[in-house]
Amino acid sequence: MSDRYLFTSESVSMGHPDKVADQISDAVLDHCLKHDPHSRVACETMVTTDLAVISGEITTGAPLNRAIVDKLVRDTIRDIGYIDPGIGFAADTCQVECNLHSQSQDISVGVDSGGAGDQGMMFGFACDETRSLMPLPIFLAHRLVENHAMMRRNKQLPFVRPDAKSQVTVEYNADGTPHRIHTVVLSTQHDESVIVTRFGQKFFSDEARRTIIDRLILPTLMAERPDLVEGKGNINLVPVGETAPLADGHIHCHINPTGIFLEGGPHGDCGLTGRKIIVDTYGGRGRHGGGAFSGKDPTKVDRSAAYMCRYIAKNVVKAGLAGQCEVQVSYAIGYPDPINIFVSTFGSAKHGLSDGQISRLVKENFKLTPAGIIETLNLRRPIYLQTAAHGHFGRELETFNWEKTDKAQVLREAAGIKS
């Protein structure tokens, strides 16, 4: 028992201020790529009370005047669900400021010749503890906010508003296998219909908390790991302000643990593009190079090479070469080939393979120049808005080529493993 350990990851909803900013930046990027696949885009967004500020460097043949940017911003905000001016941020009433200019020619010289758009190091990760080959805590945290958005839109949770955060703690055995789901935290903005008054103070009602557990949390956990959920009696709602003892096998749920969450979204907290880099990747389980994704076209290796590293790591694990895999590459601005390719399987390599041998297989079977990455993953398409909420990894959407495992058999054969 003492050798077990806890690991926690968080996610945020599409209505979280930082994710609103990410989605606006990627909406601008998609617009540019739709009209000009070779657009160079580095778009940053800030959102706060009744204000969205769009800035950055864009070189494109796409139509992109202030009126078009204004419409892109408002359409994105409306689709997220911010349509009520009464909560301090809404699509039709917020002010939109646009401050965009062309990309530096100093950068263009190196990129035009096929080099990387910046220096830096990028990581990718995969492990075999979920069907998506993602770590369990971040995968469950993503699914909670994704289902929160779906149930908000279809009125199954009619009282919730777009802003929300989830957090999942998993208890692991000493060998790294999940033992149980330990704790779930969900904070969601809500309307006045679920407020009760106790001792002169307003609270989010226990009835609403139970509704969230029964309709959202329990079904989400059951869909991925029913073996770690024994039933409704296994879910323990922790009262606001209390710390309950955790019996083995029980999952403790903290729902709006501050007691109330009326003021939220960009009105409650300023949002910025690129501030949720750990949410966007592996929830802290895999390392991160530090570069954000949203608003960047695929010549920016911060984004494209991180996608490629995920693609490589996922195929290594799917091929059965290792139980988990982390891949690192690094680049110098203006140069096409990576400076290094590093693979770690954390001692989980199989079939007598070493990390060095797997690294050589990677070098021999994957194109790692910026042009090779863009070609392999078909990245010059307007596919990025859908990445900007609920995680860039672990969702096997048709357009997310970095989630494919089509190289797994190639790696097995190259490693001399018989099917």
Give a short summary of the structure.
With 419 residues, the chain is of the alpha+beta class.
What keywords describe this structure?
11 helices; alpha+beta; flat; 419 residues; 4-stranded mixed beta sheet
Give the H and E element order: EHEEHEHEHEEEEHEEHEHHEEHHH
The number of strands is 14
Distance between the termini: 38 Å
Shape: flat
What's the total helix number? 11
Strand-residue proportion: 15-25%
Largest beta sheet: what is the strand line-up? 1-6-7-11-10
Q: Name the helicity range.
A: 25-40%
Biggest β-sheet, characterized? 5 strands, mixed
Note poorly predicted spans: none
**Which structural class do the helices and strands define?**
alpha+beta
Query: Average pLDDT value?
Result: 93
The radius of gyration computed from the alpha-carbon positions, rounded to a whole number of angstroms, is 22 Å
